[in-house]
Every structure is written in structure tokens, then in C-alpha cells.
């Protein structure tokens, strides 16, 4: 194997290369052309848009990957122009489109697409997605011009809004920096904006076709659809440009301070019934990781029965820990009878749970705006039946899927001892940078959850892995036999590389200040687990989780860095102070810990 392929496997778990890209520049305007779309539109070094993409999705909200033929790229000092043709295939129909991207040094960029279906073409969405970044914009002013010509002066929300922020959009104006003003105009259809922080994307997304309209819908054969996005950036005459920031390759300073009143959360691993026997054969590795909690996933709708509970009991005998039950409630009949049957089955196998969390099966699927909510008993009745069947056991609720669903269906918090949800970073994009960027969103999510449940309610984070264990937005997760960077995949190759270790440390650093009681960063075995399938050894992410588990319950030590290139967490563990550091970028990064005596007493682990 070539050295480049070996290094790719070490870092990313796959030798499949990322999508190639190139930078387009015109004076102070620049953008990255990648896979036929634009990312990181900047002016004078300041990010204006996170992305402008032409996206085609299928009926499960999966992104159809187009065949792209870039025919021309022309650049000079005054401007750039790129044109290409793309083809998407869905079933027996094809969608052929031609695109043109033009940018000029005076701060103008236009991205236009003409699409013609060859056969009736089914889609949930076909057209432009425009992403505004969240850093510096949450709570900042925005002007929205609507399709009827009316103008709304408002702000980007601070807390995450569960529904569309703005509808019937024609143009959006904001300030990417104090001395800049940017207007993004979208033509060819009706656009609306949603808060993508719901899905842990680091963006506000403006997309084509209102969700209140039916989907999937059909683009009829031979009927051309034309759309465009035009961005105009201008310097404000009355505001001086700020001093430019430090270069991106400057050393990253990490400052270690005093002991905080916050403690690092307990660390759990999720295990499904089909994974128990594998876990029993790898007890040495399980002890090496040392999780404080085992989250037992139990779903009668997936044919989990008493034998699964017996297997969990066997694991509990072999590896004593705090065992928690994650119960997917059928809710198809008498709730008391369902919960009492579960309680009897648990007693019969002598399984001792420390808590139970309950979520109706239908609530694992998303209910987007404009859709009818599925039949489901009131959550009050579900929780009351669970409380009756398991008296004295801490009861949790919320969602076994993601924050989006919790935000849209908020539980009666007063009936619960704790609230839970999970996150997933590959709902909308699966490239390396987008996955790492989801870490920016986690403090926004935890603040929004606290606003929903209150400061004193116990808060647990469920399984939050790169690969998706269940798809709330379609009928299935997607297989990934070629080890690609694939949205909504049930197996992501980066779990087997250093990438997942770094992302997991970044996740820990992002949630550490939020007062989380327990966090589940992985499974134990399987595609979202910590074990190398061939050697049986701990993967790099397994070592990272083991290091973090040793910090569980320990007082956090103030650990600050001004750069998003590095994540760091420090805690006063039983074995002594420890600091875990991860490089979140593919480039080598120099870390400055300040005076060496600050680090002398610390056990240090670096994932890079």
C-alpha cells in the first residue's frame, strides 16, 4: 500500500480521497469550488457565506450525488468564471443541469443553474441551499426582503428555533464584519430559512421550496427550472476595517487556570441486544475503557424480547457498572399493561437498572413543518405508566433521536427526573470540515436545552457518534460499503481513524461547561464502537473515550483556547490532573501551553 494511502487510513479510516477543490479569487473576494458548489465565500478575509450549493434530494432526504463535468474555469485579477454540467439519477429518471459561477473584484458573485429533467423526476428538494455561518451572527441584525416586496428588520436567533425562521424570502442582508454589508438575493422559486443548529450544523440554512408544500414532488420531463443566487458585498464608508486576525498557521495558545465548580460528565456506552455477546467476548477491552454507565437499548418494535434482557443481565454480572434502560415504547394499546410487562421481564432475569428513559416509537421519526403528527398517546400518559411500573427508579424522557425532535416536541419536564437527546453530524453534510464544524454548534444546543428544561433538571446526552444509528428523516440509514464520507450512513470509516478520536475530544470540550450528567460518545462494538474489527484492539477513539472516562465526575480545570483549530479539556482526576488535546484540522498545528511549569503536573494525551 502506498504511504499516502496508509496515512489516509490512519487519519480517516479510508483511502477514499476527499472531494477535490480549488480556490476562486477576484481581488478581496474568494470562494472555494468543491463538487460543483461553493464554500467559504469570503470578502477581505471575513466569511460572508458558509456555502451556496445546488442540491437534489430523494424521498428519504438523501442527497443525490451528481456526476460533475467542469468544463471551464477562467480567472484574472478582475474576476473569475466557472461553468459545468451535472447529472443526477433517481430511479429511471435523469436531471441534467448547467451551472455558471461568476465573481468580480468589486464584491459580486452570481451562481445560476438551468435544470431540465429527462423523464419525470421525483425529489424532495431540487435547488439552492444558502448557508450563513453562526459564529458572530447568532443574535446579530438581519434584514429580510420577502417575495411580496415587504422588508423585515430583525435578528438571527440566539436560542435555536424549532421551526422556520423566515418564510417567502427573496433577499437577506447582514453584516459579516462591522465594516461590511452583504446582500444575498435568490431567484427562481420561493425560499425560506431554518435554523440548522437543530441538527448540529454550524449554519442558518435558506433553502428552496417551502416545506408546507407536498413532498416528494415531481419535476416534469422537459420543463426547464432556472434558479440563481447573487451576493453583493460592500464596505461601509463610515466604519473602518478592523485589524486582521492572526495568521491561520500561528501557534495555538492553551491557558490552564484554576479548578472550576463544574464536573466532567460520566461516560456511557450504548449496547444493543445484538451486540451483547460480542461485548461479553471482549471484557478486557471494556474494562480498559472503563465506562461508568452501560446504556441498554431495548426496542420491542425491532423484536427485542426477554432473551435480550437476559443477555443484558449476563453482561451486568460480568462487568458491573450503572446500567440504564433506553426503552422504545410501542404505545399501541394499554400503556399500563405494556410497562408492567416490561417491569416483570426485567425482574425475572434479575436485571438491576439504575434508571429508565422512555420514548414512543413514533417519536423517533421527525415531523417536519407542514406534516401531520403521527398518532401517539399523550406523553403525560406514557410517563405516568412508566412511573407506575418502575416506582422509585429515576425516569427520563425526551428523544432517542436528535435535538431537532426534542425542540419540536418538548416533554412535560415536571414529570421527569432527567431529559435526554442525541446529536449526529452527518445529517446534511459528511465531509471532514462540516463534521468538525458541528462542534461549534454544541454550546448553542446545550444552552437551548437548558432554556427548555430549566437549570436544575438533570440533562443526559444520548449516543452521539459520527455514523447514524437511526434516521429520523427517512425510512432507513444508508449502507456504506465503499467507506465513503456519506450522509446518514450507518457506518462511517472515520470511526476507525484518528479523526473520530479528535472529534470526540472536541465534543467533550464543547459540552464540558454545560452541566451534562452523563454522555454516551460511542457504542462498544459494531460500526459505531471502539474496537478494531480485525485486531480486537482499541481504536484511537477508544483510547480517547478511555481517557475521558477517567475524568468522569472530576472537577474541571479552566482550559481556554481562542482558536477553533484545537480542542482541549483538563480535569482534576483521581489519578491526578489530566489534559487531553486534539488537533481538529488536517494541518500540523503548534500548541503553546505557556510556561512549562503549568503543564508539569499534568498527564497529557494529544490526538493529532
Key structural traits:
608 residues; alpha/beta; Beta-galactosidase, Chain A, domain 5; TIM Barrel; 3 domains; 16-stranded antiparallel sheet; 8-stranded parallel β-barrel; globular
How many DSSP helices?
12
Distance between the termini: 22 Å
Poorly predicted parts:
596-600
Broad shape: globular
Secondary structure: number of strands: 32
User: What CATH architecture of the largest domain would you give?
Assistant: Alpha-Beta Barrel
What does the oligomeric state look like here?
A: single chain
CATH class descriptor name of the largest domain: Alpha Beta
Strand content: 35-45%
Largest sheet: 16 strands, antiparallel
Rg for CA atoms? 25 Å
Structure, explained:
With 608 residues, this protein is an alpha/beta fold. The chain is built from 12 helices and 32 strands. The chain has 3 domains: 215 residues, Distorted Sandwich (Beta-galactosidase, Chain A, domain 5); 71 residues, no CATH class; 286 residues, TIM Barrel. Strand 29 and strand 30 form a beta hairpin. The two termini are 22 Å apart. 45% of the residues are buried.
In brief:
This protein is of the alpha/beta class. α5 (335-348) packs parallel to α6 (379-389).
Fold topology:
Elements: H1 3-12, E1 21-26, E2 29-34, E3 37-43, E4 46-57, E5 67-76, E6 79-90, E7 93-104, E8 108-118, E9 121-123, E10 125-133, E11 141-146, E12 151-155, E13 166-174, E14 180-187, E15 191-195, E16 203-208, E17 217-219, E18 225-235, E19 252-263, E20 266-271, H2 276-280, H3 283-289, E21 293-298, H4 306-318, E22 322-329, H5 335-348, E23 355-360, H6 379-389, E24 395-402, H7 403-408, E25 418-422, H8 432-437, H9 442-453, E26 458-461, H10 498-511, E27 518-523, H11 540-549, E28 555-561, E29 566-573, E30 576-583, E31 591-592, H12 597-600, E32 603-607
Parallel strand pairs: 19-31, 20-21, 20-27, 21-22, 22-23, 23-24, 24-25, 25-26, 26-27, 30-32
Antiparallel strand pairs: 1-2, 2-3, 3-4, 4-10, 5-6, 6-7, 7-8, 8-18, 9-17, 10-16, 11-12, 11-13, 13-14, 13-15, 14-18, 15-16, 19-28, 28-29, 29-30
Amino acid at each position: 500500500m502506498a504511504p499516502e494511502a496508509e496515512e489516509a487510513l490512519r487519519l480517516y479510516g479510508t483511502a477514499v480521497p476527499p472531494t477535490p477543490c480549488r480556490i476562486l479569487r477576484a481581488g478581496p473576494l474568494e470562494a472555494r469550488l468543491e463538487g460543483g458548489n461553493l464554500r467559504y465565500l469570503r470578502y477581505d478575509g471575513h466569511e460572508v457565506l458558509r456555502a451556496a450549493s445546488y442540491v437534489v434530494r430523494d424521498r428519504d432526504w438523501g442527497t443525490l450525488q451528481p456526476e460533475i463535468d467542469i468544463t471551464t474555469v477562467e480567472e484574472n485579477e478582475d474576476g473569475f468564471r466557472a461553468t459545468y454540467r451535472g447529472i443526477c439519477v433517481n430511479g429511471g429518471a435523469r436531471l441534467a443541469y448547467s451551472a455558471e459561477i461568476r465573481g468580480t473584484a468589486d464584491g459580486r458573485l452570481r451562481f445560476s443553474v438551468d435544470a431540465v429533467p429527462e423523464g419525470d423526476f421525483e425529489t424532495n428538494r431540487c435547488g439552492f441551499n444558502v448557508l450563513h455561518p453562526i459564529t458572530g451572527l447568532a443574535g446579530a441584525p438581519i434584514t429580510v426582503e420577502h417575495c411580496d416586496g415587504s422588508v423585515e428588520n430583525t435578528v438571527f436567533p440566539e436560542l435555536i428555533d424549532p421551526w422556520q425562521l423566515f418564510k417567502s424570502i427573496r433577499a437577506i442582508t447582514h453584516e459579516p464584519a462591522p465594516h461590511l454589508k452583504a446582500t444575498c438575493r435568490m431567484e427562481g422559486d420561493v425560499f425560506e430559512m431554518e435554523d440548522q443548529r437543530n441538527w448540529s450544523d454550524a449554519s442558518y440554512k435558506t433553502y428552496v421550496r417551502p416545506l408546507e408544500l407536498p413532498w416528494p414532488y415531481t419535476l416534469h420531463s422537459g420543463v426547464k427550472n432556472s434558479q440563481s443566487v447573487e451576493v453583493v458585498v460592500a464596505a461601509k464608508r463610515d466604519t473602518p476595517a478592523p485589524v486582521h486576525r492572526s495568521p491561520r498557521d500561528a501557534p495555538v495558545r492553551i491557558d490552564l487556570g484554576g479548578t472550576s465548580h463544574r464536573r466532567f460528565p460520566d461516560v456511557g456506552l450504548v449496547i444493543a441486544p445484538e451486540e451483547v455477546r460480542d461485548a461479553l467476548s471482549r471484557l478486557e477491552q471494556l474494562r480498559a475503557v472503563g465506562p461508568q454507565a452501560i446504556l441498554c437499548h431495548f426496542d420491542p418494535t425491532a423484536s427485542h424480547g426477554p432473551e435480550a434482557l437476559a443477555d443484558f443481565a449476563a453482561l451486568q454480572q460480568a462487568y458491573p457498572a450503572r446500567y440504564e434502560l433506553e426503552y422504545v415504547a410501542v404505545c399501541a394499546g394499554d400503556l399500563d399493561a405494556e410497562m408492567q410487562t416490561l417491569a416483570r421481564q426485567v425482574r425475572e432475569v434479575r436485571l438491576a437498572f439504575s434508571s429508565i428513559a422512555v420514548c414512543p416509537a413514533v417519536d423517533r421519526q421527525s415531523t417536519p413543518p407542514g406534516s401531520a403528527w403521527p398518532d401517539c398517546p399523550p406523553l403525560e400518559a406514557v410517563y405516568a405508566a412508566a412511573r407506575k411500573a418502575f416506582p422509585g427508579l429515576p425516569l427520563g424522557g425526551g428523544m432517542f433521536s436528535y435535538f431537532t425532535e426534542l425542540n419540536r416536541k418538548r416533554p412535560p419536564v415536571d414529570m421527569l427526573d432527567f431529559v435526554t437527546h442525541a446529536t449526529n453530524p452527518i445529517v446534511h453534510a459528511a465531509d471532514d470540515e462540516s463534521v468538525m464544524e458541528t462542534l461549534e454548534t454544541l454550546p448553542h444546543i446545550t444552552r437551548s436545552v437548558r432554556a427548555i428544561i430549566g437549570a436544575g433538571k438533570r440533562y443526559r446526552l444520548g449516543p452521539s457518534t459520527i455514523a447514524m444509528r437511526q434516521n429520523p428523516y427517512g425510512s432507513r440509514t444508508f449502507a456504506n460499503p465503499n467507506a465513503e464520507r456519506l450522509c446518514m450512513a450507518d457506518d462511517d470509516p472515520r470511526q476507525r481513524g484518528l479523526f473520530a478520536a479528535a472529534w470526540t475530544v472536541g465534543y467533550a470540550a464543547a459540552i464540558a461547561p454545560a452541566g451534562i450528567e452523563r454522555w454516551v460518545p460511542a457504542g462498544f462494538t459494531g460500526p459505531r464502537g471502539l474496537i478494531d474489527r480485525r485486531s480486537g484492539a482499541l481504536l484511537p477513539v477508544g483510547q480517547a473515550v478511555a481517557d475521558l472516562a477517567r475524568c468522569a465526575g472530576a472537577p474541571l480545570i479552566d482550559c481556554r483556547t481562542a482558536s477553533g483549530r484545537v480542542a482541549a479539556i483538563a480535569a482534576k482526576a483521581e489519578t491526578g490532573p489530566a489534559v487531553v488535546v486534539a488537533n481538529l484540522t488536517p494541518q500540523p498545528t503548534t500548541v503553546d501551553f505557556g510556561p512549562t511549569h503549568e503543564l508539569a503536573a499534568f498527564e497529557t494525551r494529544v490526538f493529532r
